Amino acid sequence: MRSKIDVFDVFPKLAKVIQNEKGLNIVSIRSDHEGEFQNKYFEKFCKENGIHQKISAPRTPQQNGVVERKNKSLEEGARTLINKTNLRKYFWVDTVNTVCYTLNRLLIRNILKKIAYELYKGRKPNISHLRVFGCKFFVLNNGKESLGKFDAKVDEAIFLGYSLQSKAYRVFNWRTLCVEEYVHVVCDATNSLVHANALEDEDAGCNALEFR
Fold first, then answer.
1. % of the chain exceeding 70 in pLDDT
2. Which of 117, 82, 84, 114 is nearest to 101 (CA)?
3. C-alpha angle with apex 154: 152 to 155, nearest 5 degrees?
4. Using 50, 70 and 90 to split pLDDT, how confident is the model at 147?
5. Quick count: other Cβ atoms within 10 Å of Cβ 52?
6. Which residues, in sequence order, are CB contacts of 180 under 8 Å at separation 6+?
7. Whole-number Å distance between alpha carbons of 134 and 95
8. Among 185, 141, 140, which residue's Cα sits nearest to residue 159?
9. Among candidate residues 74, 125, 81, 75, the one with its CA nearest the CA of residue 100
10. What is the per-residue pLDDT across 77-95, written as a single tens digit (0 to 9) for each?
11. What is the pLDDT averaged over residues 196-205?
């Protein structure tokens, strides 16, 4: 989602995915008084699908504590990664996605003694592919672009996270100044800090938001 107004476009898709994958229907949801949840379109969808919508009292975030704590964990995790690696703030989307991806596979629920991935999938995840955020990647140009006889076969990149659509890594390619997805990579985990001034150019920042 780019903004809160996209919630209604995303939620019906999420409900359908849960129904297809788990054979379950959403019975109720709890939210605050923000406009993305309290509007005629969202309320109509909930009524049509038999979903009970529970709203927390005004100015009482503790009634929606699970979500508030989760959002705080994501925010603080993303803040830590961005500042630790000296990345520019326009990478916040990939950073938050990476924090969420990692927490779902590592954070143990105290009561159930299981992680979120295990609760949903019914099996433990394979975490051998996890890498250090912001570390240096060397990505292989395997036919994506034509190469001359003496052109370099690899590009240097920054690791940003994991693809949600395929088994690939998301990286910022220094040569193309684009966020791209690659499978054939070599990770240099010993070099995980981006130079402080490396992304100061605002023009480079605009190009960095291109996706391939």
1. 87
2. 117
3. 105
4. confident
5. 11
6. 139, 157, 170, 171, 172, 173, 211, 212
7. 10
8. 185
9. 74
10. 999 999 999 999 999 999 9
11. 45
- Find the helix packing angle between 65-85 and 92-106, rounded to 10°: 120
Residue-wise pLDDT for 33-57, tens only, equals 888 888 888 889 999 999 999 988 8
Handedness of CA 63, 76, 189, 143 (dihedral sign): positive
C-alpha distances (whole Å) from 27 to each of 8, 41, 51, 121, 206 are 17, 18, 5, 20, 42
Per-residue DSSP letter, 211: B
| One-letter amino acid for residue 7 of the chain | V
- Residue 13: how many CA atoms within 13 Å on its side-chain side? 6
Sign for the CA dihedral angle at 123, 126, 127, 130 comes to: negative
- Pairing between strand 136-140 and 185-188? antiparallel
| Environment class of 157 (CB within 10 Å of its CB; exposed 0-12, middle 13-18, buried 19+) | buried
Report residue 66 as tokens.
Answer: 């699970």
Please give the Cα distance from 103 to 98 (Å, whole number): 9
